[in-house]
């Protein structure tokens, strides 16, 4: 049984969709199970494993929680500066509690983190053990959550990602599409560099971690499981927000998602007037996850085109 925490968020919904397609046994929770309460987490885990949660009986083996995927967290970078206590609870206390429950019930943990743990002063892709120097409350609390997990357990995969967009919920692609359909021109910053990531690609990699880990046990040791620890996953390549927006406009026009002309202008972060300092460079190295999982990661432009032309594309 796989327990998806944060199942109503953008990534959580995509993970659950793919779990359903692959016919995994899974259960999902969101705000109804408070991750800042160790008792709430423990009570829910117990209800699953004792069969109280399910309307029909399933075998003990099937209801045993063997994996937890934590897609929850506080993600509003600007509001985090004002709601520091809430950000700390959701990004540090919550992951610590989830790690404790994982260890107690013997489950392995996959936890989602962020490029914001780095300060953005780099000029080449950050490796997993690169120097951490988060600039604001969001990055600091996400890093604290990573550290908390590492102190509580050993059987974890922390997966950092960046510039995430998906079919369910607010994201940069949907925002740009709506703006381009309602404005003659827009301004987008051109001095922050990183890599867009499609939620469906990330979800696929997360499930691959599980499949590879479980598969290793059934092959009599012929194939080793991916090493526990920290990984990076984004799509391949790098760009800046302005170039990203220009690609959205080009593909949006191509597939009829954008129906009017709009001039996409570049500007500096200072000119844009951002309230919170963000990493100027946050490209993540994917060498480790490519080697461990033996996967091919799509270029960000390829995944963006698939996303925009998909029938599920629906700016809210």
How would you explain this protein's 3D organization?
Helix 2 (38-49) runs parallel beside helix 4 and helix 6 packs across helix 8 (241-254). The protein is an alpha/beta fold and 316 residues long. It is 41% helix and 15% strand. 42% of the residues are buried. The protein has a single domain (2-170, 196-237, 282-298), classed as Rossmann fold, CATH 3.40.50.720. The protein has helices spanning 10-21, 38-49, 60-63, 84-105, 137-152, 172-180, 199-217, 241-254, 269-272, 287-293, 300-309, and strands at 2-5, 26-29, 67-70, 108-114, 156-161, 164-165, 185-189, 193-194, 197-198, 229-232, 239-240, 263-267. The model has no long low-confidence stretch (mean pLDDT 94). Helix 1 (10-21) links the parallel strand 1 and strand 2 (26-29). The strands form 4 sheets. The protein has a 6-stranded parallel beta sheet with strand order 2-1-3-4-5-10, with helices on both faces. It has 11 helices and 12 strands.
